[in-house]
# Entry
Amino acid sequence: EYFTQRDIADIQRIQGIKEVSTQLSGSGLAEYNGKTTILSLTGMEVGVMKLQYASQNLEAGEFLNEGEQNKIMIGNSIAHDTFDADISVGGRIKINGQKFFVSGIFGKQGMGGVSSDSIVLMSSRDFQKLTGQSNISSIYVRVNNVNDAESIATTIQNAINENHGKKDFATATTMTSILKTGQNIIGILQLGLV
# Structure
């Protein structure tokens, strides 16, 4: 199950919200150097992409720029392990019969957190054009006042759960709570090492 346009509309009506954007998920048939495989595809607005993946190092290349078409960013294992030959920046991968140029390759992430090792990232526009789908797997929200983030998160969570008739359909997480847990993890690791 995915989020719906009704969910988006309900979120946009909540007071204190500056901007709403989505992350789309699907899959496609990818072809490179004579080998074909099915890959998971992620589509999102370029501005959100840069924020979402800002902390992840790039092995090579750069992030997508606003308005660019038929360009993708790929995870480390897609670049080095998925096909019979390594893919480098500027390389061309065919997805569903359409050529995409590799703009950037993420550094190896390994386990822990949101790993980008097997990601194929493209703009929302390219994703919809390529797949004809708009499966919304995540929703990103910017608020006017960071102090309202927690209460807005709760309001969003309740509204979406009500739409889907489930208590636990959606979980809203604020960036501040992510940062706090991150610091706790570092603290625990340091204690463990001592």
About this structure: Strands lie at 17-32, 35-44, 58-61, 71-74, 92-95, 98-106, 120-123, 136-143.
